[in-house]
Amino acid sequence: MLSIALAGKPNAGKSTFYTAATMAEVDVANYPFTTIDANRGVSHARTECPCLERDERCNSEHCRDGKRYVPIELLDVAGLVPGAHEGKGLGNQFLDELTNADAIINVIDASGATNEKGEPVEAGEHDPIEDVDFVEEEMDMWLAGIVERNWESVERKSRSPEFDLDDALADMLTGFGASPADVAATLRGLEYPDDPIQWTDADREVLAREVRRRTKPIVVAANKIDVAPEENVERLLDLDKPVVPTTAEGELALRRAAENGLVDYDPGDATVEITGDVSDAQRGALSALAETMERWDGTGVQAALNYAVYDLLAHLTAYPVEDASKWSDGSGNVLPDAFLLPAGSTPVDLAYAVHSDIGDGYLHAVDAKSNREVAEGYELDEGDVIKIVSTN
């Protein structure tokens, strides 16, 4: 399962974002370090279900009238402060929690009501643009420190006749989530000495930054747009970085209202409809939130998750089935499973995602939409429905 981590300063709204995206109860408070131990829960990426191409909707619990929700892991890391990579604010402990994440959502307070230390201030007193590069810089310098501390072992290995720099760096960086392919691809884009002993601090820092960029891409969630000056949000959107306007509090309110039958709303919808008996105060709050959603095309929480999965990580959704004509499993359940796979994945990759035995016994695959057999090297598209034929 893909793992997305929420990071940022204390009090930026990470825990509210996490609660809204997972509906898991966590501590939410208006002071730094509300979260100490990382929270882990299940959220979802949203996409169009292939059942929209059929006369009837599927019966998957993860499909809501053609809106398909694919499970991902969401990690809420405690707030970071300046100097976190040096251990300030328990920073190294918190940064270590990001090791196994596939992508990062940097939650910032777009209203400017949280200073650089994560302390509440008057709205507009702090410039939120200063927070955009904050998590990226702390992660880069944290990894640079790891590389520096372990460089002596790379130098020792270099004395061996069988020494291979790619292998040595891959061994060192595997714990950060970098694969040998990640390291090799990073090195291909850099100029560096062949002898590790000749590497400088600057060489190691460049390596750390490029490996982080490749293995921990970041999207910014410009949070609290419901109370932020619009010019703040517009300035953030003008940056040459992926930024998604969000209101985590708004999303949480909508999900709770939907649970209580007060509104018609699914995560990621751009609009909301009041369907239950609400008080005048509730109606006013929901109407104000609806205006925010109209301005920014929703609350942004689902959009940020989707951007991390489908854009930053370039994944697609594929649906394995046993019956190619009915798009069902052996029990008649239509489109029961959905898998997130990297772009460029093949039916063989999907087979292994279902089960290693299915992959080992792979014979061929059928595109259930066209009812035609596809080649082993066929690159899957978003929404493909695939019947896998295997000896196992």
List the helices and strands and how they pair.
Elements: E1 3-7, H1 14-22, E2 39-48, E3 63-64, E4 67-76, H2 91-96, E5 103-109, H3 134-157, H4 165-173, H5 180-188, H6 201-215, E6 218-223, H7 230-237, E7 243-245, H8 248-259, E8 263-264, E9 273-274, H9 280-296, H10 301-312, E10 315-321, E11 339-342, H11 347-354, H12 356-360, E12 362-367, E13 372-374, E14 384-390
Parallel strand pairs: 1-4, 1-5, 5-6, 6-7, 10-14
Antiparallel strand pairs: 2-4, 3-4, 8-9, 10-11, 12-13, 12-14
Helix pairs in contact: 1-8, 3-4, 3-6, 4-5, 5-6
Please state the CA-atom Rg, rounded to the nearest Å. Answer: 23 Å
Shape, per Cα inertia axes? flat
Sheet with the most strands, sense and barrel status: 7 strands, mixed
**What is the number of strand segments?**
14
Structural class: alpha/beta
Q: Report the uncertain regions.
A: 27-36
Mean pLDDT: 92
CA(first)-CA(last) distance? 23 Å
> How do the SSEs run, as a string of H and E?
EHEEEHEHHHHEHEHEEHHEEHHEEE
Q: How many separate helices?
A: 12
Strand content: 15-25%
Helix proportion of residues, in percent? 25-40%
